[in-house]
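Standup notes
- DV: blocked on the single-chain target, sequence here:
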Amino acid sequence: MEQRNSYSILCFILISFGVALVSAQQQCMNTGTFRLNSLYDANRRLILSSLPSSVMAQDRFFFQGSTGQEPNRVYARAMCIPGSTSDDCSDCIKTASNGLIQSCPNQTRAFAWRGEPTLCHVRYSNTSFSDVSSELNPNNVFNNNVFNNTGDINTNLTEFAAKWENLTAHLIVAASTENSTPSSSSNYYKADAVALTPFQNIYALMQCTPDSSSLTHDCENCLKQNVADYQSCCRQTQGGVIMRASCFFRWDLKPFSKAFGNITVASPPPLLQPGKRFNGIVAILVPIVVVAFIIIIILVLTARRSAVLCWRRKPYEELDFDQSGISTVDSLQFELKTLEAATDKFAMSNKLGQGGFGEVFKGMLPNGTEVAVKRLSKASEQGAPEFKNEVVVVAKLHHRNLVRLLGFCLEGKEKILVFEFVHNKSLDYFLFGQWNNHLNIDCKGIYMMFFSV
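- DV (later): unblocked, structure below
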């Protein structure tokens, strides 16, 4: 209970006195001390002073080693985030090491996270760095540091909280996933940003030490505890740093540590004023309604056309013309021998003419009716059902200015139409033949011929 109160008092002091996000944070761990100018002190100074060159000798900006013999052996590690330049990394580690010597003069364990000119980490201890679980006690104020700005969030808190939580959850998953280069600062690291407003972004960074164990989820547990510590202390303030000996979390409303140079943040959609929002909705809905209306018209016309075509293509057995007395196609059919007798077997003496679809012969039926027999070309590709269907449709037509179809014949390859015989020849003869020199038929007269009753 006393430790919990101590943690709350620390957060209150940090907020009240406006502890800024300083460029370096040292943590002296009260787990033991040593005498000044002792062998342990000498070994500590030796290994800390060698860290800048040791890290620069590594391609992956991470070094871990030790110097001296037990019980005065000193273990140390140092690292810089990916993308750091050699000069920035060296200066950062050197400054952090000197800060530990000055701030922790006789502590056997300490660590530092420095944020400028890049983010780097330095740690030393009298034991190897193998146990991360001891760092995760939220009430142990000596194993974590909480730093925050004193400014409040000047935006919609609900929207901010949703974006902030989504970003930190994404970073925890990304940073705690081990990659193929375990001995590298790029392992267990992630920096990203999300747009808060058209003019402001949320920037966040998470880093675990590369020696974290993926089997025991050291990095994931450590980062989750950092986020929980910040939320319980300072969640409505602008920016914050939570650091432990094995993991680091920082977020702010401005870039930091040169960690976001290659990160592109997508701008959020602009907020519309009420009037402009209504106009925007209208501008979207009107084209949609117009397009939908046009599509409906096209579908209706297509459906009607399909219905007409389907009606035209019905088999002749389905047609019913009871109003004219033609109920079946059989009543219109002539036998071939009847037509051969009527035309004297299509004698040339009875031939009236020839068109594009066949020859026309004059004939006399047994009942004395004169007919014009049109013998269609045998090369026609029209099938028997289609031929019969068209015969029934044409036979339905009645007009005083049209030649009436009396019937048909369909035997073998023969397709024959039987029309009433017109003594005064056909209309095209009067319109286009030699008789048009004697007749003065204008367009109105032609129209009246076809459409008068």
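- Follow-up: DSSP finds ten helices and 15 strands in the chain.
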